Amino acid sequence: MNFLRSYLPILDWGRHYTRDALSNDLIAAVIVTIMLIPQSLAYALLAGLPPEAGIYASIAPIVLYAVFGTSRALAVGPVAVVSLLTASAIGQVAEQGTAGYAVAALTLAFLSGGFLLLLGVLRLGFLANFLSHPVIAGFITASGILIATSQLKHILGVNAGGHTLPEFVMSLLSHLGKVNLPTLLIGLVVTGFLFWVRSGLKPLLQRLGVKPGLAGVLTKAGPVVAVVASTLVTWALALPEAGVKIVGAVPQSLPPLTLPSLSPALLQSLLLPAVLISIIGFVESVSVAQTLAAKKRQRIDPDQELIGLGAANIGAAFTGGYPVTGGFARSVVNFDAGAETPAAGAFTALGLAIAAVALTPLVYFLPNATLAATIIVAVLSLVDFSVLKKTWAYSRADFIAVAATILLTLTLGVEVGVASGVGISVLLHLFKTSRPHVAEVGLVPGTQHFRNINRHDVTTDPNVLTLRVDESLYFVNARFLEDLIQSRVTEGCAIRHVILMFSAVNAVDYSALESLEAVNSRLKDMGVGLHLSEVKGPVMDKLKTTHLLHDLNGKVYLAQYDAWSALAAQPSRRAAE
Amino acid sequence: MNFLRSYLPILDWGRHYTRDALSNDLIAAVIVTIMLIPQSLAYALLAGLPPEAGIYASIAPIVLYAVFGTSRALAVGPVAVVSLLTASAIGQVAEQGTAGYAVAALTLAFLSGGFLLLLGVLRLGFLANFLSHPVIAGFITASGILIATSQLKHILGVNAGGHTLPEFVMSLLSHLGKVNLPTLLIGLVVTGFLFWVRSGLKPLLQRLGVKPGLAGVLTKAGPVVAVVASTLVTWALALPEAGVKIVGAVPQSLPPLTLPSLSPALLQSLLLPAVLISIIGFVESVSVAQTLAAKKRQRIDPDQELIGLGAANIGAAFTGGYPVTGGFARSVVNFDAGAETPAAGAFTALGLAIAAVALTPLVYFLPNATLAATIIVAVLSLVDFSVLKKTWAYSRADFIAVAATILLTLTLGVEVGVASGVGISVLLHLFKTSRPHVAEVGLVPGTQHFRNINRHDVTTDPNVLTLRVDESLYFVNARFLEDLIQSRVTEGCAIRHVILMFSAVNAVDYSALESLEAVNSRLKDMGVGLHLSEVKGPVMDKLKTTHLLHDLNGKVYLAQYDAWSALAAQPSRRAAE
Q1: Residue B438's beta-bridge partner residues?
Q2: What's chain B's average pLDDT?
Q3: Is A11 helix (H, G, I), strand (E, B) or coil?
Q4: What is the per-residue pLDDT across B544-568, written as a single tens digit (0 to 9) for each?
């Protein structure tokens, strides 16, 4: 039973479901449903899929996440970045608008779901940590720019294409002569309106006496107003005849039963993009879920989240959708609107199902330019170059990771960009630990403390060299320490004893062990003793299984002061340099 | 002048060159020359090149290393592992025995030399550290097996081929019917003799009253005896007519002036192998040089070694050679024979030049089987599976790295093997640091020390949670700490304060900083304080540039005891679990 409960969190909260929670969940669901209709249509457009795919992708996945997920407020469905990644991945295997394209989207969702489930069952959620915060920040910013640029074609009413910033720009420039003016007008007006809603509407409503909470929710309804108004205008003025592209006929239907393709060639070419989409989606989703959970002192289980998101994606694959994850905007609206349990998500799904059956004829005259404008305004809020400034101030390595990720994502595409970002972060981390901080320390007079001789007035002894190593020792930095000791001992020939102070050494791997053995035997050849001090328990446990301690041309001291007391013969005061 | 001296170590030792050093260097040079003649021929055979290439590769490179290198005893020339790597790399672009094959070898040496010089000028020698000791040990052992197996065809007198162990074995088995008996007989006798020389001759000589040092040098002359004896037998019995393959005509000439090919296609296909050969050769060379230097309390400069080896390889490219590096066997003989300065190397080069001009007709009847036997006996001493046992006992991660390197090198070839080994080591290291040791600590009564509550009887306070983090915080483990704190605080609802004890945190990267900010803001939402203690100077310097300390919902304490004194209200004694 406990086993079942750990895999089915619904058994946990479902047993205590109250009438109050029900009414709160219902209210949240209505608000989220209204917000999701235009958003789902827009993201489907971004992914290059027919508009209904966006709605279908919000129904079954929400229900499945409600059963398997651990967050109380997360709203699962299509999101901007995953839609862009989907378009980029499928664009390489099928032509937009063909049946193969839609099947590839189902297959991508299927693979992504399978990969997430696999990680979840194997409890490998920590793999997502390889995406460092700077890489994610750089990637999101660059994706925002790519998405916004990709949508400009809908605003201009031209047939441009591409997958990278230079491609988009070149393609748009070459189509500038074919701009459709009515489309451009709609696009600009809607974009301007939505920007005003974001920045100006909420303060205005509050000045008019509306409560801040309600004002926030009303602000989120801005896209709905834009959708209704531009649809009416387009219908009334018969703008499609003037070349304005519209959503057109959307089938009135519940999500259909669909099957992903299992063709080995397709699976193989979509596998890597699916892994990427899974991990990026998971990271976005977990950040949102964790932030919302903390506000109510609840917690989420990242490994179970993998199961929840995996089930949601499998669901999308069999009901005409495409890859989904927990979205930031929709989850925050859900939370702010008072959702208490995942049941709110189930009610949202119900609302969207009704919309899919009954309301789709109403969006027939909705211009694509309006959807593009909602996307542009949404994603531009993700663009944030301040991370460049912040990382520059804090750490050059992190800055390089962000800058490279942004640059490569914009110029070589989302997949190369994020993969290079991960590779660069790992290399820079290894580089930083490859030359660890090693301080020569001496005794602070009147205490048992040892500090850096270059920063403090300390007592030293020309016969005793004490080095405090501020890093775990492993293969990348093992030789560095070897070289350092070698150079220190040959320079100052008075040295009779070397003490390595291990207070900050959290691990010693086999390469470092062999380096220590080599240092020991070289120092022995020179008639110099090698001693260790303040070795941590777990490190000592490991070293005890080896010959090093037995062959050591010196001793292991519990405290550095013990080593100093035993070895220093002619201490002399030394001022900081 | 100092700048010149740092790039031309010869200016350093050359000015103090004495008559004593000269005579010591001359004696060493004679001994090394005699040993090098058969070894050079054998390694050329292993690399798939004509025998003279091995001698040429030992002349100019030795002189250039003497000018630019920093080791006093290192002997540069063809070595077993690099010869194997050369054969494997060139075998993919040219047919053995063709002119294109020899030109590809020159080009490989040229690329390798250029890469080493580049690393040296950019002072990037530490990149070699990515080859961990377990990966090197596994690679050397697997290479030894591959080399020995590849030479069996010469012992059997058949035309087998291949690049991996399964290929070698299958090819040998399919040729078993064509074994040449006289060749096999020579091969077995020489192999047996050489093994006996290694294990039985030195003790015998010492029993006969020969001094240990001289006995050691005489033992190294074993291959020379085998070469002379088997050449005489082959000539006297006219064995080539019975199908015994011999070295045959070797041009009597000084090293010719040759030019590497600069064809872009060739350069591109040899670039990666050249990088691999450079790094492996560099690692082997530096280990040998460092060990020998330590014995005389001298030191070598790894970055200048890159320049020395780079120059040696460029030299090999222009004088009919192939990639070279500092060899273990020849350097030890040079050192044991009393070489004092790199001039010994220059005299060795002179000796080999004389041999190339005058002595090559003498090796006409030398059977290939003899050369193969010297290679087999030399490389089998490199095969050492004990590293599997040692790493298993010390650390599973290192064991996996060794085992994977051995297995992949044997089955998929040297390049895939060593590249996978590096990749696996890096991933395992990141994996280990991704779930750092985090101990909940309490106060040891009567002291100011804080220890793990699960190992010691300590005082704790239900309102205060102190976690000692035993790892630097960076992107791979940042979320782990975030999750851990979240789960601990939601579990124990009495907790009012969380103290993170940073005594073993050597660095905090930007991702970890953002995680700490997230933890801080979530704890603030829960009304829980977040405090830091024992933050190191360099870490504190970084944190001071950020908003974290300003926004911290708590304080930074110099010592953990200060934090405890300020925050613990109702301490209670708690026994270890």
Answers
A1: B469
A2: 86
A3: helix
A4: 988 888 899 999 988 888 888 888 8
Residue A574, strand partner residues: A458
> Whole-angstrom Cα distance, residue B505 to residue B542?
13
Partner residue facing A486 (CB), from B129, B294, B477: B294
With a CB cutoff of 8 Å and minimum separation 6, the contacts of A361 are A250, A252
User: By C-alpha distance, which of A55, A95, A30 is closest to A250?
Assistant: A55
* Strands A497-501 vs A529-533: parallel, antiparallel or unpaired: parallel
CA neighbor of A139 nearest in space, from A378, A400, A326, A408: A408
**Cα separation, B115 vs B109, whole angstroms:** 10
Do residues A209 and A391 make contact, with C-beta atoms less than 8 angstroms apart? no
Selecting from B397, B475, B493 the residue whose C-beta is nearest the C-beta of A129 gives: B475
A317 neighbors A86 (Cβ within 8 angstroms) = no
Selected residues 14-43 of chain B with any CB under 8 Å from a CB in chain A: none
CA nearest to A502 within chain B: B504
CB contacts of B537 in chain A (<8 Å) are 455
CB neighbourhood size of B203 (10 A): 11
With residue A556 as reference, give the H or E element that holds it: strand A556-557
For residue B326, the SS3 value is strand
Give the single-character DSSP code of B201. Answer: I
Segment (H or E) for B93 = none
B contacts of A486 (beta carbons < 8 Å): 290, 293-294, 299
A381 vs A141: CA distance, rounded Å: 9
Contact with chain A for residue B429, Cβ under 8 A: yes
- The per-residue pLDDT for A492 is 54
A294 and B526 in contact by Cβ < 8 A?
Answer: yes
Q: Which of A302, A395, A477 sits opposite B509 (nearest CB)?
A: A395
- Beta bridge partners of residue A186, listed in sequence order: none
Of B479, B514, B521, the CB nearest to A129: B479
Chain A, nearest residue to B476 by Cα: A129
The share of chain B scoring above pLDDT 90, in percent, equals 28
CA–CA distance, B234 with B180 (Å, rounded to integer)? 14
Contact (CB<8Å) B542/A394:
yes
Question: Can you give the three-state secondary structure of B422-469, one letter per residue?
Answer: HHHHHHHHHHHHHCCCEEEEEECCCCCCEEECCCCCEEEECCEEEEEE
User: How far away is chain B from the Cα of A297, in angstroms, using its nearest Cα?
Assistant: 6
Q: List, in order, residues 6 or more apart from A462 with CB less than 8 Å away.
A: A492, A494, A495, A570, A572
pLDDT one-digit tens code per residue, B41-89 = 889 988 999 989 999 999 999 999 988 988 888 889 999 889 989 998 9
- The H or E element containing residue B500 is strand B497-501
| Interface predicted TM-score (ipTM) | 0.75
Distances (CA, A) of A306 to A62, A137, A240, A278: 14, 22, 44, 9
With CA atoms as reference, report the closest residue to A486 among A522, A433, A462, A521.
Answer: A522
- Cβ atoms within 10 Å of A123's Cβ, excluding its own: 12
Low-confidence winner among A176-180, A349-353, B88-92, B450-454 (lowest mean pLDDT): B450-454
Name the minimum distance, in Å, from the CA of A473 to any CA of chain B.
Answer: 11
Contact A478 B133 (CB under 8 A): yes
Q: What is the DSSP string of B147-166?
A: HHHHHHHHHHT-----SSHH
What Rg value do the Cα atoms of chain A yield, rounded? 30
Cβ pair B133:A471 closer than 8 A: no
Query: pTM of the predicted model, to two decimals?
Result: 0.75
Dihedral angle, C-alpha B270, B271, B277, B283, nearest 10 °: 180
Are A441 and A466 contacting, i.e. CB atoms less than 8 angstroms apart?
yes
